[in-house]
Amino acid sequence: MMLLDILYATVFVIALPWVLFMLLTRPAFRAGLRARFRPGLDPDPARKTIWLHGSSAGEIDLLRALVEPEEALPGDYRVVVSAFSISGYTVAKKAFPEHTVIYFPADFSFIVRRFLKAIDPSLIVLVESELWPNFIATVHDAGIPVCVVNARMSEKSYRKHQRIRLIPRALAKLDMIAAQTGEDADRFIDLGVDPDRLHVTGNMKYDRCNAGDARENEALRRRLREQYGIASDMPVLIGGSVHRGEDRVIVSVYKRLIDAGHALRLILVPRYPAEAPAVMGELQNLGLEGVRKTARTKHPETVFDKPSRVLLVDTMGELGQFYAMSDIAYVGGSLHYRGSNKGGHNLMEPAVLGIAVLFGPHNYSFRETVRDLLAAGGGALVQDEAELAATLERLLADPEARAEMGRRARRVILDNRGAARQNLQLLREYLPPGSVRPDSTTNQGIPT
Known about the structure:
Elements: H1 2-14, H2 16-25, H3 27-30, E1 48-54, H4 57-67, E2 77-83, H5 86-95, E3 100-103, H6 109-119, E4 121-127, H7 133-141, E5 146-151, H8 155-163, H9 166-171, E6 176-179, H10 182-190, E7 198-200, H11 214-227, E8 236-242, H12 246-259, E9 265-270, H13 276-285, E10 289-292, E11 309-312, H14 319-324, E12 328-331, H15 348-351, E13 356-359, H16 367-376, E14 379-381, H17 385-397, H18 399-415, H19 419-427
Parallel strand pairs: 1-2, 1-4, 2-3, 4-5, 5-6, 6-7, 8-9, 8-12, 9-11, 10-11, 12-13, 13-14
Helix pairs in contact: 4-5, 6-7, 12-17
């Protein structure tokens, strides 16, 4: 740990000019800086404490599967939730108003010891790939169990860790790892993890999908279609969380399809509402009329009067309901390369509603879901504009094939639920004595 502290300090000194520049010019960089070195809380001697950690907003959302009433770990204890990124901290403050939320400490051993003294945790749970070597080593030396749930190890990270043995040494100090897939588990074992401490429990992202009741979903679909004046048999295509460039492709394909006589309506939901004016320009360039949702709140039934009108959703938090009224969903962030650790958005949200799901080739963030959907025939991968057009033509020409793809997509999500319950069952073994209620039936779990 001392050697790693020295290494961190050396890197900090070298990067000091850049750090000072960022502190002066980027307010977001300063947010929570002091809180990463000194926690603003005290131990709770009356109760044991469980410390849960996720990096950013996505990982923080997964933690909700461990503490919400229907899945919560049994026992009377305090929960402390930490986040590394600013976005994660912001989401955590909203998601866990009844729990303590802090920034994750800087990975110096003396700072970690300061946090451990202040929090006094009986169990620490990390999510996915939050493997900080000094943190894990310091906690291990303090005799506190550390578990990782929803753990993943990408091929790229695996190759890097084979060369640089820092993380493998940290992995050896973990008490339990619950991996998402067998491939992840194999990589952890190759990096030196004891197979007895490794379990494959699936992806908790599936548990965060609100599956709902099929009849309730259908009722919502009918209600929304009536609200927007769309006939029950009119196919609706939605581009969800689309990025710049993807909007141009979808609009171009849509124009080609309606010019060829296909009955179809289009909803576009940009990933960032601020991009709505640029998307309006793309529509106008092709002779289409964009109708912004914020401008048509009083008379939504007139939005789709003619195929040349396209609904542009320039609001946040409403993507789910527009998926619900659609028949085919293209999920954005996946058609064009955006970085080695980026790619794709939430495919599960439209899939669980039972609609046909399309996506591009760059799906780093949801590669397991892509694999499962393709294997089950519940989704279609489109490499470019030509493949998107051909796939849409096929689905429009065969309504039954389109409906069957949606049914299979929903089945994929339902069949993969249960990872959170299995992880909770495993974590029970590491809870402090007396914290588990013997009469609890909330988290009996399912066989692992």
